[in-house]
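cache lookup: miss for this entity combination. No prior model stored, computing from scratch. Input as submitted by user K.M.:
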Amino acid sequence: MLMRLKHDLTMADAARTPGGARVDLLAVADMVAPGAKVLDVGCGDGELLRLLAETRSVDGRGVELSREGVNECVAKGLAVVQGDADTDLADYPDDAFDYVVLSQTLQATRHPRIVLEHMLRIGRHGIVSFPNFGHWRIRLQILFGGHMPRTDNLPYAWWDSPNIHFCTIKDFRELCQVVGARMEKSVALDAWGRALRFNTPWWTWNLLGEQGVFLLSRRGMSGTAPRQLGAADAVGR
Amino acid sequence: MVEAEFRVTLDATDRAREADNPHSLVVRFGPDKPLSLDAGIELAPFQIGYQTYGTLNAERSNAVLICHALTGDQHVANLHPVTQKPGWWETMVGPGRPIDTERYFVVCPNVVGGCMGTTGPASTNPKTGTPWGLDFPVITIRDMVRAQAMLLDHLGIVSLFSMAGGSMGGMQVLQWCASYPRRVFSALPIATSTRHSAQNIAFHEVGRQAVMADPEWRHGRYFAEGTNPQRGLAVARMGNHITYLSDAALHRKFGRRFQDRDNPTFSFDADFQVESYLRHQGSSFVERFDANSYLYLTRAMDYFDLAADYDRVLANAFKDTPTRFCVISFTSDWLFPTSDSRAIVHALNAGGARVSFAEIVTDKGHDAFLLEEPELFAIVRGFLEGAAKARGLAPARGWPC
């Protein structure tokens, strides 16, 4: 996505390993089985697809809204199409992929619930990573600063932000329940990209995690037919 | 129009000679190997004029088929034998170019119905000893592809590493992938569509009517009657040429500037640069192209509708295709707009294909695929490199491993 790509570029400041890989992408890659077929929705300049190809030998495809991002990916030999997560996922057949990834994308979509439902229909698994709006620093900025929060990972002013549907880890868990997604694995990353310990309770993740990364599957694997966009969605609730 | 504008350097006999005995490689198929046409006719004998560049490797796994557009021919990357101009895709095909002839074996045939060495209306009809003219059967994109498959059989190429083509060439690429999916490892349909639109059919009809309105056309019997419908064909080309450009490109290149004068002449002379340019396009086209070929090839494009053969569901044409696709369109192309390419991508996605799709920003219109577009070159190069890696093709000599 045009703004997604900008986001990816600003994510250059994000925590990286000594090898140069973004830790949030490594957390995503860790959840992917080697040799799998993967669709990265909002793939930016293709960094995750490359990482997955190199470390997991996946058959990777990408969807990206920004023309610059797409052309850069295709020139790198990646199979990426120009498209919009909100409208173009409907074209993909059921169970077309082992994993569908929404890396830092869900909060930039218009209809996160429908996107999530499509994700679970197209892929046997979904992997979602997003910035946690429940992080303590964000809470403090709103509480004491009285303004929309800005952090290293979320550097935009409110009027300039591609991120139009912020949520907290707690909110996301609720959405997963609504769409019938089962959380198979969950990781919260702190400000330095370190994974929070597993045995800590959820509310600490929601407070201390700057980002959440989740491996999802369909409950019962029966598939949920994505809702059609209705008038109620258009007016917003 | 000024008479001198349409002076031709070649007479009809020269062109007929190129149609039968081209300045290129040629394979002749006898009566035992007819070409089965969609029109229900077995065309035999027939021949295919073609060019090759580079070397076929021992495994025969590095062949790239280039499909030319409406008025193109097999002379992709060599001096054109008639016009003495560089090949039509020399920026794309050649040593070190994106389609690297040091690495790939490039084959480009002239299409059936063409006039540069593959059997078409300008070729000699063996039954009469005179050019076919309108006795030549109407051909389709599928017929062109069937003939190309026979050429590859003749060359011993079972499977193509890749194929590329723009416009009508892209139609052939798509037809190939639908007809012979196992024979195409990767494909580049550029600035093309799976069906010719009503608007495009309309433009072609104007072109055909211009040719047929020329009194020298003589119902296609101009060779026999010693005439040449060059005015009609030139007007057809002028009209079509406008559709290959864009408003922005015309404005950038010519604006309202006058041609070799400071004031209007108050006549119908070519006062404006854009008029002079179009006249030149028309007159240089008739030097190298056969009027009847123009009729047949535009008709083949008009009839093209890939989905029609697959229960009107385009995705069925590409169901479970093993081919890797790279679809490319240009922002200012209004003849084959990005929405056409997007429809191809949607069908490929629905068919589960491995597809890349890039839209390139340019004001050069449909013609952009033939022109200097660095982003196009980078994308083609990157796509082919990725495909070569997947196919296990060795890097070109001197390449860092």
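stored under new cache key. Chain B touches chain A at residues 324, 326-327, 345-346, 349-350, 352, 354-361, 375, 378-379, 381-383, 385-387, 389 (CB under 8 Å).
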